[in-house]
Fold this protein.
Amino acid sequence: MKRIFAFATALLFATGLAAPSSAQDFPQKPIKLIISFGPGGGADIIGRILADHMSVKLGKPVVVENKPGAGGIIGNEQIANSDPDGYTIGIMTAGQIIAAATRKSMRYDTTTAFAPIGKIATASLMIVTRPDFPANNVKELVAYAKANPNKVVFASPGFAATQHFAGEMFKQAAGIELLHVPFKTTPEAMNAVLGKHADILFDTVSAVIGQVQSGQLKALAVTGKDRFPAVPNVPTAFESGAIKDYDVTTWYGMFAPKGTPEPVIAKLNAVLNEALADEEVRKRLEKVGVVVTSSTPQVWGEFMAGEFKRMSAVREAAGIPQQ
């Protein structure tokens, strides 16, 4: 609990540790937006869309730099060690909070090393299976799993990935036993389901919607508390009546190194939120398969603190060892 409290406290107040009188003259040079994943992924696409708009509004280029590796740790480490002046910022994802919850030690502490700028978007996951699987909805899936404990295999694109934790949280909420088999990528996990080496997959709507629409995969539910705009006819898992307190989404937000001056954070938050309110930007983000969700730095910091606490509890309940 002390660690969680420290996380919330650091996120809420770190922005005020160094404070010029104003950010009126900020920025004076290009801003580096580090994406801790490779080109073409969700965080990369979202970051580039926002960088385009923010560059215009700030009057200086916001330059995207990809620093992939170790589930986002390499890029985040660079941000954590950067000068806290607003000229190095990054995109935080749900998976990076899970990384913090599942590792014994890293060269930076995700819970204290960063200052929040603002939330960007959320994206629901979808529970899918092959067409011949005996369950056609979550209620039938839960009943089948209870009748066949540890015989239903759920695939994921990696140990301790968001998709893995979505499955673990589903198990805990439904009171069932599923067998987890991790793969290296979403396509590999999807092929395992299609090839009948696994039964179900939890993955982002954008990753599986093509196979669902073509009939290769069958959608059972989305994992968020609300139906997802891209697939409005797919019910939430909660709607089945067979599962309670299940709300899993992946998400994206912007952050800076701890100690970035509060006026600079406030200016970056204002420009970020202005971008998210722009109709063209929103349309481009929605095409990526996310729902735009802006916030203040304080709300964003509180959200991340809550997610760290929640993912730590999931890890402990699932018996997942810290690496």
Notes: The first helix runs from residue 2 to 13. The first strand starts at residue 31 and ends at 35. The chain has eleven helices and ten strands. The two ends are 20 Å apart (CA to CA).
